Amino acid sequence: MANQDQEKNQDTNNITSENSNTGKETDVKTPQATTNTQAKPTVDDSDEDLVTVNLNAESASSARIAAEMSGKPVRRREKKASEPPKYNPADQYKKKRIRKRIIALVILLLLIGGGLFFYFRVIKPAKATAEAMLSSMNETTDTVELRDITDSITTTGILEASDVRTITSTAKDPTIDAVFADVGDHVNKGDTLVIFSTETIDRTIEQLKEDLSEARRLQAVESRASDRSYLYTYADQANQLLNQSDVVEARLKALYEACDGYGDAKRALQEAKESGASEATISVLENDVSLAYQQEQTAQSNYDSAVKSQGQLVGASGNTLTKADEDHEIAAIKAGDQARQYQRQIEDYQDKLENYIISAPISGTVTLVDVEEGNGFAGGRVMVIQNTDTMKIIAKIDEYDIPSVKLGQHVVIKTDATRDDELDGYVSFIAPASTTMAAGGTSTTTTAATQSTGNVEYEVTITVRTVDPRLKIGMSAKLNIIIDQVSNVLTVPYDAIQTNAQGGYYVTVVDDQTGGMPGKNAGDESMPVLQVNGQDVNTVEDPAKDDNKKGKPGMPAKNRRDIPVEIGMEGDYYTQVISDELKPGMTVVIPDSGEFNMEQFADMFGPGY
Question: I need a surface site. Which of 49, 101, 342, 452 has the fewest CB within 10 A?
Answer without folding.
Answer: 49
